[in-house]
Specification:
Blueprint: E1 6-7, E2 29-30, H1 35-40, E3 49-52, H2 56-67, E4 72-75, H3 83-87, E5 91-92, H4 96-102, E6 105-108, H5 113-120, E7 129-132, H6 138-150, E8 154-161, E9 175-180, H7 182-192, E10 197-200, H8 207-233, H9 240-254, H10 257-267, H11 278-294, H12 303-314, H13 324-330
Parallel strand pairs: 3-4, 3-6, 4-5, 6-7, 7-8, 9-10
Antiparallel strand pairs: 1-2, 8-9
Helix pairs in contact: 8-9, 11-12, 12-13
């Protein structure tokens, strides 16, 4: 500490206003007034991050790391997208290789798995901690983990359960699934948790993508149902804005059924806790299909599921509810 203030011995001193008790004592220093503060501060250094890919999601991630004080190096195929981040303090690399060389922690947020190959071909990844937030399949994630190991890098795969406006806004509930090296996740969890919550789902590198796709598949199933519901009223004198809260509340009320489904899958007893038996539900499907026909709405979003319900019932699933349909899908 070459520039620190020279500390003189403690001695009794008067306050500038002589209004402190006689027992008061002051530490007398010579040098700049900030010297003692500089000696006692011990700021926590933030982990430097390299981010490849500055689409809407990548840009949102970048801004949260910058706002939290993390040194950030960015690269994007279209350099113009990095200009605003440079003004906010990011270092812009001319090439992906330069960006990767800048920091140990390298985060990928690219278009697809093919883009990862295109961007990192020929780049030295030795000793790098690679966190891949690029959307892909479980098989692609497992192959990418092996690919990273072959190149001397450690690997985490991630599935982002958020849209860009949710990043950096904890109250929105956005989070990211992570899978792969547990040790690597533990090492970087605080940094990875800056943009959104973190949920680690296992050592298998494909599990983050699998959880991601499972939730997104359920989401699109919900969207399909809501599309059919709105189509039914499309030509009627019914305000969609009036139906929307009723529909949302009904979906929320039905959502806890997933816990009963999970319990039945674990126990193997598909009749446990059944409220509405499969036979009764199948008996009600003609009403839904006839209503669709009368309203001039295609049943194509409902018919495949109803067919699975009928097949399960034919296999003597009358005492079950809907869990047995899952086995038809798997088999």
């Amino acid at each position: 500490m070459r520039d620190a203030a020279r500390l003189l011995p403690f001695r009794r001193a008067h306050s500038p206003r002589d209004n402190h008790p006689p027992i008061s004592a002051y530490l007398i220093v010579s040098g700049p007034a900030t010297s003692l503060i500089a000696m006692t501060q011990n700021p926590v250094e933030k982990t430097p991050v390299t981010l490849l890919g500055l689409g809407a999601m990548g840009t949102a991630l970048a801004r949260t790391w910058l706002a939290a004080g993390h040194p950030l190096t960015v690269w994007n195929r279209t350099p113009a997208r990095a200009a605003a981040l440079a003004a906010e303090g990011a270092r812009v690399a001319d090439t992906a290789a330069e960006a990767v060389a800048a920091n140990s922690l390298v985060v990928l947020c690219l278009l697809d798995d093919t883009s990862v190959d295109e961007v990192l071909t020929g780049t030295d990844l030795t000793g790098r901690d690679l966190v891949n937030l690029t959307t892909g399949t479980p098989a692609q994630a497992r192959a990418r983990a092996a690919w990273a190991r072959e190149r001397g890098a450690r690997y985490l795969d991630g599935g982002i359960m958020a849209v860009p406006p949710m990043i950096g806004v904890p109250e929105t509930g956005g989070y990211v699934f992570y899978s792969g090296s547990r040790e690597l996740f533990g090492r970087h969890q605080d940094t990875l948790g800056v943009p959104a919550g973190t949920t680690y789902v296992g050592e298998d590198a494909g599990f983050a993508a699998l959880h991601d796709v499972a939730l997104l598949s359920a989401m699109y199933g919900m969207f399909a149902g809501t599309a059919h519901a709105f189509a039914l009223i499309r030509r009627e004198n019914i305000d969609p804005a009036a139906l929307a809260p009723l529909l949302a509340d009904w979906l929320v009320a039905m959502a806890p059924a997933v816990h009963r489904t999970a319990d039945q899958l674990v126990s193997g007893d598909y009749t446990d806790g059944v409220v509405s038996g499969l036979a009764m539900q199948v008996a009600g499907t003609p009403t839904l299909l006839s209503t669709a026909e009368q309203q001039g709405v295609s049943p194509r979003l409902l018919s495949p599921y109803f067919e699975l319900m009928r097949r399960r019932l034919a296999e003597d699933g009358s005492e079950e509810d809907l869990t047995g349909v899952i086995d038809l899908l798997v088999n």
